[in-house]
Each structure stands twice: as C-alpha cells, then as structure tokens.
Amino acid sequence: MRNSNYQRICSNLLKGLPQRTVDIIERRFGLKEEKPQTLEAIGQIYGRTRERIRQIEEDGLLAVKEKLSDYKDVLKHFEKILESFGGFKEEKELLEFLGGKRAQNHVFFLLTIAQNFDRFLEDDKFYSFWAKDKKAAEKARSVVNSIINRFKKEKKPLSLKEILEKQKTGKNILLSSIGISKEIEKNPEGKFGLKGWIEINPRGIKDRAYLVLKKEEKPLHFRDIAKLIDNLSFSPGGKTHIATVHNELIKDQRFVLVGRGLYALSEWGYRPGVVKDVIYQVLKEAKRPLTKKQILDKVLEQRFVKTGTITLNLQNNDCFIKDNKGRYRIA
Predict the structure, then answer these.
(1) Distance CA 82, CA 88 (A)
(2) Burial of 6 by CB count in 10 Å (0-12 exposed, 13-18 middle, 19+ buried)?
(3) Does residue 264 contact residue 213 with C-beta atoms inside 8 Å?
(4) What one-character-per-residue DSSP string does 187-218 give?
(5) Domains of the chain, each with CATH number or no CATH
(6) What is the CB-side half-sphere exposure of residue 88 using CA atoms within 13 A?
(7) What pLDDT does 116 receive?
(8) What is the CA radius of gyration of the chain?
(9) How far apart are CA 161 and CA 192, in angstroms?
(10) 80: how many CB neighbours lie within 10 A of its CB?
(11) pLDDT the model gives residue 2
C-alpha cells in the first residue's frame, strides 16, 4: 500500500469534523507538520487549557473511529505485517516499514484509532512497541528474558544462528524481541549481547585493547596491540597512537606487563608486579624452599624474560635466602 494512500485515508477520516477539531488532531499527530505538537503547545495557540484540548481531541477521535470500518483492508494489511514480524514490532521500525519517510505519522494515527492493536509504552527495559494483542506482548517479553538469561549463562556474544539453535522460537519473533529490548544490542561484527558488555559497546582504547588480546589469545607488544586496534570493526577511525596504548595499559588492572613491552590479560592467570614480586609469590605459594630450576620454570610461566634476569633477582639477599642445599626461600 502506497504512503500517499495513508495520507488520503487520514484526510477522508477527518472530513466532516469541526475545523478546530481537525486542526487539533492534525497538530497532535503531525499529519500536516513533521513533528507532533503537545497539548500545552496547541492550548497556547487556541488560548485553551491542556485539558480542554485533550477533550476536543478525544471527542474527535471517537467520531473518526466510527468511520474506520470503511477501511478494513488497511487494518488487515497492518495485521498481516505485524504477524509477519511475529505479532509485535518496535514502534520506530514498524512505522518506518509501513509509512516510509513521509507517512509514519499517518500510520501511527491509524494504528492509534484502530481497535485491533495494542501499543506498549517505553519503560526501563523496553522501547515502545505495537502488538496485535496482549498475548503477543507477553510472548515478546518472555522471549527477551529468555535471551538475556542465555547471555548471562554463556557470558559471551552470540550470533543469530547460535541464539536460534537453543531458542524455541522463529527467526522473526527472535529479531522482533531483540528489537524491543533495551538490554540487548548488536555489535559491528553482527553478534548480539548485553549492551553493558565491552564486546558490544567498547569504551575507549583500554576496552579495544582488551578485545584485541581476547581475540589473539596470547600476550602482545603494545605496538602490535595499537595496530590491531585499528583493524577492529569497533574502531572509530584514525590511527591509534602507540604511546596512548602503552599509557592506558599500565593504568588498567586487566592488563599485566609480562615482558619488555609485552602485555597479557590478568584473567589468563598472570600476576601483576616485577620479576622480584613474581618470585616472591611463587615461593609464598610453594610454602617450602625451591630450587633455582623450579623457580625459573614457575617464573617463566608468568614472564617473558631472560633466565639471567631471574637469577639476578634471586641474588637480592634482602628478599631471598639461599640455603646450604641450593634452595631458595623468602627472607
């Protein structure tokens, strides 16, 4: 159905009403202007209270609804489209789909005066959406909660295919459910997750560096991290400054300096601190003296350094003591 038809239908529905009533409805729904006006704004134009304008609008809409039976084909078309989306759809997406750029306000007007559809207002968890009935809306919220619980369990972004594999619902219902949720978003790589996750909405260099290391699954030099940040689909554009990356990684506890310029993620089991600190922690956890080789093996699991660097730190008598069997303990 062409957008011009919606405009013509709205005009026909308003015929026969008092001119002031027509003007108020057109202003309220933006049928002549692009942006709908508030009751207060219209009241100022007519020198009437907000409540009086609301009463005039309400009386006019009651009269219009009586004429809507002449356009049952339009309502059936709306119903068919909603059913194709799974029985519900986020408001902006539905209005754009039905009305394009020019007739969205007219579609909203027709949906509002029809008895066939329910509108659910935006709240903390959901965007405004339309449903063919309350049962469809309940289904929508149920699917959203199920997907969110799945994300919390998996603790990682999922593709649409991965979500569908375990979600007992159709693709259209799934997409419509995601569309009305404020808690679920899609990242530039096409995967879905919770909006607070950095894999979905990374903030700044630190989060992007974290994503790079997670993807590479190995320690990297900060120069390489800077280059790989520029290749991320999340990158805002422009070249990432190497010095900025280094400075940001030093300040964030998620990253551990494990070698000369090499950074790893602390969640991989790497401990913070210099070589001396790592030796101390190794001996503390062992709860017994260790040989030089045992210490070297343990420290080299944590740091990419030369064995000579570890040996030099072991010679610090203020920190470590070597017994007559060649084993080391904490001083």
Answers:
(1) 6
(2) buried
(3) yes
(4) -TTS-EEETTSTTTS--HHHHHHHHHHHHHTS
(5) 3-70 (1.10.10.10), 134-194 (1.10.10), 204-268 (1.10.10), 275-330 (1.10.10)
(6) 31
(7) 87
(8) 32
(9) 10
(10) 9
(11) 53
Residues in the chain: 331
Q: How many CB atoms lie within 10 A of CB 7?
A: 18
Q: What is the pLDDT of residue 160?
A: 94
Instruction: Please list, in sequence order, all residues whose beta carbon lies within 8 angstroms of the beta carbon of residue 30, skipping any fewer than 6 positions away.
Output: 36, 37, 105
Q: How far apart are CA 318 and CA 160, in angstroms?
A: 58
pLDDT < 70 positions in the chain: 1-4, 235-237
Q: Per the structure block, which two tokens stand in for 108?
A: 């909203």
Name the residue with tokens 């009403």. 17
- What are 191's two structure tokens? 């995967």
Q: What are the C-alpha distances in Å from 261 to residues 30, 126, 227, 250, 279?
A: 60, 45, 14, 10, 20
Rounded Cα distance between 136 and 139, Å, is: 5
Q: Which pLDDT does position 231 carry in this prediction? A: 86
Which residue type occupies 92? K
Q: Cβ-count burial of 251 within 10 angstroms (0-12 exposed, 13-18 middle, 19+ buried)? A: exposed
